[in-house]
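Usage example:
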Amino acid sequence: MVDARYFGDGLTYLNPSDLKGKLIAIEGTDGVGRSTHIEMLQEWLEVQGYGVITTGWTRSNLMSKTIEVAKAGNILDRWSLSLLYATDFADRLEHQIIPALRSGFVVLADRYIYTAFARDFVRSGDRKWIRDVFGFALIPDLVCYLRIDVETLTLRVIETTGMNYWESGMDLRLGDDLYDSFKKYQSLLIKEFDKMAEEFQFDVVDARKSPEEIQSELRGRILPVLQNHTGVAGAGRVPA
Amino acid sequence: MTDQEGLKTVPHPYPGKLIIVEGIDGSGKSTQLLLLHKWLESKGHKVFFTEWNSSDLVKDTTKRGKKTKSLTPTTFSLLHATDFASRLYHQILPPLKAGMIVLADRYMYTAFARDVVRGVSRDWVRKMYSFAIRPDMAFYFKVPIEVAISRLLGGTRGQFKYYEAGMDMNLSPDLTESFRLFQSQILAEYDKIVEEFSLLTMDATQDIETQQEHMRMLVEDALRGYKPRRGTYGRRTLFWRRFDVPKSE
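Running the assembly step on the lines above writes:
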């Protein structure tokens, strides 16, 4: 990220110009297969000698537990929910992502700020506030969007993990039961992701294809981004 | 309600009244708010009280982050905003909508002063809090730094805490000196905020009774025309929570 930039009002105390690594975000709705593909990408990159770290939504040291507790208590208003995500993201940005980029790592992000944008928009109908809040985020070098239609997604989720309360947006009371609510909520999310795909120029990958085809498409998009990678591949330890 | 400029000028649409106090540690603002609380209740008002960084949702996290010293200016600011959002939604808005009086010990102006001194963008923090509502009355207790320090060290506080003294900013290895430098910068930031948001400045060097007399006079004026809701003799324990949240850790 030679000319790394912040999305909006950035971290005024942190100059992003010395970040040598690459930041690659994999976006897409729940159950679309992001984490599977990120695992495979990491393996592939490491074999080639790139230092890789992965970072995932709600996985920060500071916040993961808090978010779990908050979701279990089911008392979240729109603002608290989005601000909890933002805090988690900021903690990972400053303690994982930026240090790793500074040491020349490839950072694979399982979800990025666009997930927060979609979820907040579906709950509020307002795009401005959430984008202002995430102004401190770095713009990734590449955003791959795993795109799926809601019919295929529904079948896949039933076949694999099953539907849960939050992935069904049950807090929004969109349908009478989990199934109806899931379909309505996920349709809204996908619609917003599609809009953002144009606005922010995501690389769209058809997630209805076989895992092998998706993986090879992802690799095809990532390679050119790494071509001007200046970091020493594989060097250094994963920052704490 | 998400208009940033609106925070300065547009009154909230609810029948209740929101009165807040601001000032640095040692300014005496909490004492003044407590005395105001007593007075309002003695006049038969239903009064609710809420204070900065006190929601169940976030308090423990902030504590943990402070203990491990892993908070950055941005996560520090975001956590406080989360706490504020949660309290606004659960503690402040319901009584206001019901026509009652809410007293808040610190409000978003604390973030505008403190977080900006810590280094976050002045615009960013204002945009983040754009979901807030404008208080009906906002008091700023202005005190010189030396008066605040002597009150805090002479009182029960004894020793300053790490974040309260701004030790995370590496201003000075000495706690008291760090507190002085950090809080002086906050005072300077407050001076700008007073102008920007038209806060009512109180002379916090005066003795407690004089300040309180002045405060009560101003509040009485502001409440003219306000129709208090009669109480129901209901005894409040927990507030607007349909589900119990287990304590984290």
